[in-house]
C-alpha cells in the first residue's frame, strides 16, 4: 500500500528492533541449544542412539542459525517440506523484490524486523523437524510450564474470584456486571506482561495477586476503549433472539499465566451471557517462546482440573465442559505463524479471514498481534488505529496489549512525546497497556 511508513527494522541502529536482533534473539537461540543439551539423556532413554544423533543435529542447525544471524548473512529459503514452506519462500522472494539492487539480499540487520523475527522462530522449528525422532520436541515447553507453576498464587486468586462471581452473577445489575467485565478485561491485559520472549526466556511469572493491583495500574492504560466493548456486547445480549449466537473470538498469545487470564475472560463472557460462544486461536508450532499451542491449551486445563485447590479444579472441570459442549472451540491456522501483517490475511488465508468475519467481536491478545495489526511500522503516534489497520477489519476488533515494541497509534496529540520525554522506554518495557477498538463500520 502506498504512503505507509517504513517497517521497523534492525537497520535503525540503536532502535529496539536493532537491540532485539543483536542481543535478544541470539540469547534465545543459546537458551534453545542449552535446552536440547539438557534433554540429552531423555532423548537417549526414549530413542537410544538415534535420539543422541538427533540432538546433535538439531544443535548444529541452531548454532548455524545463530551464526547466520550474528554475522548478518542473507536470509535463506526454508528447505524442509512442511505445510507452509512454499508460502514462506514466496514471502522471502517478495522481501527480495522490495529491495534496491544495491541492498543485495534480505538480511537480518536490513530487512523488516517482523519478518526476520518470525523467520527465526520458523527456522528453530525447521531445525527440530529436520531432526527425527525428536521432531515433535517443543523446545520452549519447560519455560511455559514453569511460568504456569510459578504463578500458582495468582492463578488461585483468579479462579476463586471467578467461581465466587459465577455464584452471584445472575443477581448483578447492569452497572455491577459492567464493572466485573472491566475487571476481567484488565486481568487479561496485565496477563500479557508475562511473555517470555521479551525477557529473552528469563522467567517472568505473576507472583502476586493481580486482582489487588488493578486500580493502581489504571493510569498505565494509554487507550481505554472498554466502554465501547461493553456497549457492543451488552447490545448483542439485549437484542439476541432466543437460539441465536453471539460469538467472541480470542486470538491467543502466551501460555502460562496469560492463558489463564484469557480463559477467565472467556468464561466470564459465557457466564454473563455477553457471549454464547468463544473461538480461540492458537499457534500450530512453538512460537515467540511462550505462545500457546494446542498442547499447551489442553495441558493447562488438565493441570487446573487436577489441582488440589477446589476453585482451581472447578475451573478445570467447567472449562473442559465448555470444550465438550462446543461453547469453547480451539482452532489453529498456519497464518498465525507466517510473517505477514494482518492486512494480507484476506489474500494469504481467505478461509481464516472468512471465519473471523463471523465473529461479533475479535480480541487480539498481546504485542506481536499488535505489530501484525499495524504492520509493525513507524506510524506517528496520533494516526488513527483504523488507518494503521490498512483495511484489515473482518469484524469489530480490539487489541489487548502491553507495549513491548516501538509501535503505537491512536494516541492523543502530545501524549507520545510527553511519555518519551519522561520515560524513554515506555514503548518497550511492558509497563503500559491499551484496549484499542476498531468498531463496526
Ligand atoms: O507475547 P507478546 O506480547 O506478543 O510479546 C512478544 C515479544 O516479542 C517481541 O515481538 C519482540 O521480540 C516484542 O514485540 C514482544 O516483546
Ligand atoms: Mn507471545
UniProtKB/TrEMBL annotation:
> In the UniProt record, which is one GO cellular component term?
nucleus
Which residues, if any, are the signal sequence?
A: none
* Keyword tRNA processing found: no
List residues of the Damage-control phosphatase ARMT1-like metal-binding domain. Answer: 21-419
Q: Which UniProt keywords apply?
A: Hydrolase, Manganese, Metal-binding, Methyltransferase, Nickel, S-adenosyl-L-methionine, Transferase
What family, per the record? Belongs to the damage-control phosphatase family. Sugar phosphate phosphatase III subfamily.
| Domain remark from Swiss-Prot or TrEMBL | Subfamily III proteins have a conserved RTxK motif about 40-50 residues from the C-terminus; the threonine may be replaced by serine or cysteine.
Instruction: Identify this protein by name.
Output: Sugar phosphate phosphatase
Look up and give the organism this protein is from: Bos mutus grunniens
Could you read off the lineage of the organism from its UniProt record?
Eukaryota, Metazoa, Chordata, Craniata, Vertebrata
Amino acid at each position: 500500500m502506498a504512503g505507509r511508513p517504513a517497517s521497523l527494522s534492525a537497520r535503525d541502529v540503536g532502535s529496539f528492533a536493532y537491540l532485539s536482533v543483536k542481543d535478544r534473539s541470539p540469547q534465545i537461540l543459546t537458551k534453545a541449544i542449552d535446552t536440547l543439551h539438557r534433554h540429552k539423556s531423555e532423548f537417549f532413554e526414549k530413542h537410544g542412539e538415534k535420539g543422541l544423533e538427533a540432538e546433535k543435529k538439531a544443535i548444529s542447525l541452531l548454532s548455524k542459525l545463530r551464526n547466520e544471524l550474528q554475522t548478518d548473512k542473507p536470509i535463506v529459503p526454508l528447505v524442509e517440506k512442511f505445510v507452509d514452506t512454499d508460502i514462506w519462500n514466496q514471502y522471502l522472494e517478495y522481501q527480495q523484490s522490495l529491495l534496491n539492487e544495491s541492498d543485495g539480499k534480505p538480511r537480518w540487520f536490513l530487512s523488516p524486523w517482523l519478518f526476520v523475527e518470525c523467520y527465526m522462530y520458523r527456522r528453530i522449528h525447521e531445525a527440530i523437524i529436520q531432526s527425527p525422532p525428536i521432531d515433535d520436541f517443543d523446545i520452549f515447553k519447560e519455560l511455559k510450564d514453569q511460568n504456569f507453576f510459578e504463578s500458582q498464587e495468582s492463578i488461585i486468586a483468579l479462579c476463586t474470584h471467578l467461581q465466587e462471581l459465577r455464584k452471584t452473577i445472575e443477581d448483578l445489575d447492569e452497572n455491577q456486571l459492567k464493572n466485573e467485565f472491566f475487571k476481567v478485561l484488565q486481568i487479561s491485559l496485565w496477563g500479557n506482561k508475562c511473555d517470555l520472549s521479551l525477557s529473552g526466556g528469563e522467567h517472568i511469572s505473576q507472583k502476586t495477586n493481580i486482582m489487588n493491583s488493578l486500580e493502581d495500574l489504571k493510569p498505565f492504560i494509554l487507550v481505554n476503549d472498554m466502554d465501547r466493548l461493553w456497549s457492543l456486547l451488552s447490545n448483542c445480549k439485549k437484542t439476541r433472539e432466543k437460539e441465536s449466537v453471539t460469538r467472541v473470538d480470542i486470538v491467543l498469545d502466551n501460555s502460562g499465566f496469560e492463558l489463564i487470564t484469557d480463559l477467565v475472560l472467556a468464561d466470564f463472557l459465557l457466564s454473563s451471557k455477553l457471549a454464547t460462544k468463544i473461538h480461540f486461536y492458537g499457534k500450530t508450532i512453538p512460537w515467540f517462546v511462550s505462545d500457546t499451542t494446542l498442547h499447551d491449551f489442553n495441558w493447562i486445563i488438565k493441570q487446573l482440573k487436577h489441582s488440589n485447590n477446589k476453585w482451581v479444579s472447578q475451573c478445570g472441570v467447567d472449562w473442559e465442559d465448555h470444550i465438550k459442549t462446543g461453547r469453547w472451540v480451539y482452532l489453529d491456522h498456519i497464518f498465525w505463524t507466517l510473517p505477514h501483517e494482518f492486512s494480507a490475511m484476506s489474500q494469504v488465508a481467505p478461509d481464516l479471514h472468512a471465519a473471523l468475519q463471523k465473529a461479533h467481536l475479535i480480541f487480539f491478545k498481546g504485542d506481536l498481534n499488535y505489530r501484525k495489526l499495524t504492520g509493525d511500522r513507524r506510524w506517528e503516534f496520533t494516526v488513527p488505529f483504523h488507518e494503521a489497520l490498512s483495511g484489515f477489519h473482518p469484524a469489530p476488533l480490539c487489541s489487548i496489549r502491553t507495549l513491548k515494541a516501538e509501535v503505537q497509534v491512536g494516541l492523543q496529540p502530545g501524549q507520545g512525546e510527553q511519555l518519551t520525554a519522561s520515560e524513554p522506554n515506555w514503548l518497550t518495557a511492558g509497563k503500559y497497556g491499551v484496549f484499542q477498538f476498531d468498531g463496526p463500520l
